[in-house]
Design brief:
With 236 residues, the chain is of the alpha+beta class. The chain has 5 helices and 6 strands; from the N terminus they run ββββββααααα. The protein has a 6-stranded mixed β-sheet, with no helix packed on it. It is flat, with a radius of gyration of 23 Å.
């Protein structure tokens, strides 16, 4: 985890942290590993301090977001899968123009194909996880709807007074809305992954040209980096 952050940690102290569902807290500090690399971030949420892997933070302009594990993996796939597909196209073009010796082309093509297969397998595995998560959210929504039905029936029959009904229905509707929003968010992620697999999202040409030499040399290490499973010290 250490060393993967792409931001200036001191400048983020005190900043609010957001997720797609809204603000989640405020950055209090960071934790370094023995080598001095940023490892974790401490976030204050409702008066409670939570510890998260610093690599789960994403800075977008002035805003700081705390990504979920699924969002983090999507970010990695969005960066790497279109890039490796673009590299394969470039290699094919070089081969057709006989710019590079055939034995070099074959060696690079094999490595790129292996890398591409790993990324595509990762994308499909993530889609499976998202579908399971969406099913869980759907079941939660159904349970909340049943709970609401009970309240509505008893309220209509007069067995629950108006004040008690309002105190109960408000948090129930709020939680139902949250579950629906979370389900929609992960289904949008699924759509984006499918777009990446189908080649609808392309790698920026400038970024590809700038990073191509390093990517070819470090193809193996990148694969290991993407398989990291972030672990939070708190349970949601």
């Amino acid at each position: 985890m250490a060393g993967n952050v792409r931001f200036e940690a001191p400048k983020l102290i005190g900043k609010p942290v957001r997720a797609d569902g809204g603000e989640v807290g405020r950055i209090i500090s960071f934790i370094m590993d023995p080598s001095g690399q940023i490892e974790d971030v401490i976030i204050e949420k409702g008066g409670i301090l939570e510890r998260h892997p610093a690599e789960m933070l994403q800075v977008r302009g002035e805003d700081v977001f705390l990504l979920s594990p699924i969002e983090k993996r999507l970010t990695s796939l969005s960066e790497n899968l279109p890039k490796i597909k673009r590299r394969k196209e470039v290699l094919k073009d070089l081969s057709e123009r006989n710019v590079v010796p055939s034995e070099i082309i074959e060696n690079l093509a094999e490595r790129i194909d292996e890398r591409l297969k790993r990324l595509e397998d990762e994308a499909r595995n993530l889609i499976d996880e998202i579908e399971r998560e969406a099913e869980i959210r759907e079941e939660n929504i159904k349970s909340l709807q049943m709970a609401r039905a009970f309240l509505e029936i008893e309220h209509a029959m007069g067995t629950i007074d108006e004040e008690t009904y309002k105190q109960s229905i408000v948090p129930l509707l709020k939680e139902m809305k949250n579950e629906q929003q979370k389900r929609l968010e992960i289904l949008r992620i699924k759509e984006r992954i499918n777009s990446i697999l189908e080649g609808e999202i392309e790698a920026p040409v400038e970024e590809e040209a700038e990073e191509e030499p390093q990517q070819v040399e470090e193809a193996g290490s990148e694969g290991e980096e993407e398989e990291l499973i972030p672990v939070s010290a708190t349970s949601e």
